[in-house]
Design goal:
Order of helices and strands of chain B: HEHEHEHHEHEHEHHEEHEEHEHEHE
Number of strands of chain B: 13
Number of strands of chain A: 4
Strand order of the largest sheet of chain B: 2-1-3-4-6-5-10
Strand content of chain B: 15-25%
Structural class of chain A: alpha+beta
Number of helices of chain A: 2
Oligomer: heterodimer
Mean pLDDT of chain A: 92
Helix content of chain B: 25-40%
CATH architecture of the domain at 29-90 in chain A: 2-Layer Sandwich
Strand order of the largest sheet of chain A: 1-4
Structural class of chain B: alpha/beta
Number of helices of chain B: 13
CATH superfamily of the largest domain in chain B: Thiamin diphosphate (ThDP)-binding fold, Pyr/PP domains
CATH architecture of the largest domain in chain B: 3-Layer(aba) Sandwich
């Protein structure tokens, strides 16, 4: 990512473009990632509701998956999943 | 008119939109009078009573963020309680104006004047001005808004006036009318405001990759503010005939010894200089009005020919290399080939009187030892000691 020089910092360091945090990929913080066993998923969307980072999306066939570019690996989806189809897997070192 | 009332009247004339303050001695008369002006309908502004100075400055930041001309005032413990917000207000570039009615910090509890409060907040990134009399306190209130709101500046301004010895003094003043103020101080046109139609983020998080760049931008903005401060003071002089300078010289012609002081003690030092000049001593005085950004170039020009600079500090940097003004000036002059000897005195803490005789004693003890030990670096003067 190209970085500002001090001369380019907007006055008061304001951010003038709404929603540009999406350009900042924060998913590399995680130490665990959620893995879904589709055979047990009932498409209830509980994981989608509970994800504090809104990093869970659903694909065309109604299943849910985590966008690993933003997922922090907190494990809330796995904890809340009704059927236990989400497993947290250690990120490789 | 009481000086506190004069400051409040200036705030009314400046047509401030919002005042958020918590009462603390000796600032009280300023905010009491403002609250009356708002309650009685003489000033169309929001007066927001808050539960602490921390909240007062937080509210000021919020109202400034929506584009309101904002004022507050505090002293000592109150200024200390808003300390963390001072840095936020300046780094977010909000042109808030605050009258700091200088008072000693506790403990022991003391409500009287010294500069310990503002010196503890010295590095907060605000423009910092010291006034020595009521006329200056009145005038600088308008100048403060004008410099703060200039698009080339956009920084908060602290106008320092001594508690009680200035704030509660009744003084004859030359006032200005609304028409003059309106001409000098047009309505505030903010660069960025919080508005639902134009979403922006203020006060965002900054990672190590960008934090230093933001600090450098703030540093350069405060340094560059000096040019605008000078322009504003020139314009005020053209309008009212009252001229302000970052450092004002008094009897500096041919001076070999120069005293340097900020705030009301400058006026006592003028009396001391008059007495010494009558006796043929080549002593002058530098009155420091602009503390941040520090006017180093002006200082260097004004001390050419001076052999000894005697700095009077009204604050103690406990355990440090001398009072804050002294140690800063001495350090700043280190690489200057024509630097004078710099000697510091810490005087008048917690409302202790600094009479002209004590100022003459400073000069005596700097030049020749007369009965008392000659001072080589810095010294707390006027302290009772054994033997």
């Amino acid at each position: 990512m190209e970085q500002y020089t001090w001369e380019e910092i907007p006055v008061g360091a304001v951010v003038t473009e709404p929603g540009n945090a999406r350009e900042y990929k924060t998913g590399d913080w995680k130490s665990q990632r959620p893995v879904v066993d589709k055979s047990q998923c009932i498409k209830c969307a509980v994981c989608w509701i509970y994800c504090p980072e809104a990093a869970i999306h659903h694909n065309g066939d109604g299943y849910y998956f985590a966008d690993l570019q933003y997922c922090k690996g907190c494990g809330i989806c796995a904890r809340e999943c009704l059927t236990g189809c989400i497993t947290m897997v250690e990120e490789e070192k | 008119m009481e000086v506190s009332v004069a400051v409040s009247e200036a705030i009314k004339l400046a047509n401030v939109d919002c005042i958020a303050a918590y009462p603390i001695t000796p600032q009280t008369h300023i905010v009491e009078h403002l609250s009356e002006l708002v309650a009685d309908g003489h000033l169309d502004a929001e007066f927001i009573p808050v539960e602490s100075e921390h909240s007062a400055m937080s509210v000021c930041i919020g109202t400034s963020a929506v584009g309101a001309r904002t004022f507050t005032s505090s002293s000592a413990q109150g200024l200390a309680l808003m300390h963390e917000l001072l840095f936020i207000a300046s780094a977010m570039r909000f042109p808030i104006v605050m009258a700091v009615v200088n008072r000693a910090l506790s403990a022991p509890l003391n409500i009287w004047n010294d500069h310990g409060d503002i010196m503890a907040s010295r590095d907060c990134g605000w423009i910092q001005i010291f006034v020595e009399n009521g006329q200056q306190a009145f005038d600088q209130t308008f100048c403060a808004f004008r410099m703060a709101e200039d698009r080339r500046v956009l920084l908060p301004v602290a106008v320092n006036l001594d508690g009680f010895t200035l704030s509660h003094v009744v003084e004859s003043l030359e006032l200005v009318n609304q028409e003059t103020v309106d001409k000098f101080l047009p309505p505030y046109q903010p660069l960025y405001t919080i508005h639902p139609d134009r979403p922006i983020t203020m006060g965002a998080f900054a990672m190590p990759e960008v934090y230093m760049e933001t600090r450098k931008a703030h540093e350069v903005a405060l340094r560059n503010a000096k040019q605008v401060i000078l322009e504003v003071w020139d314009e005020w002089a053209a309008l009212t005939g009252r001229r302000y300078q970052p450092i004002e010289g008094y009897h500096m012609e041919g001076a070999e010894i120069a005293l340097l002081a900020a705030g009301g003690v400058s006026e006592v030092a003028m009396e001391a200089v008059d007495q010494m000049r009558e006796k043929g001593r080549r002593v002058g005085l530098l009155k420091l009005h602009l503390w941040r950004p520090f006017p180093l170039e002006e200082l260097k020009q004004m001390i050419s020919g001076v052999k000894t600079l005697v700095v009077i500090d009204r604050a103690l940097s406990t355990g440090g290399p001398g009072g804050p003004v002294f140690s800063e000036i001495r350090s700043a002059l280190y690489t200057y080939p024509k630097r004078p000897k710099v000697v510091g005195f810490i005087a008048g803490l917690g409302g202790r009187d600094v009479p002209p005789e004590q100022i003459i004693e400073m000069v005596d003890r700097t030049t020749t030892a007369q009965g008392k030990k000659r001072i080589k670096e810095f010294h707390m003067i006027g302290v009772r000691e054994r033997g």
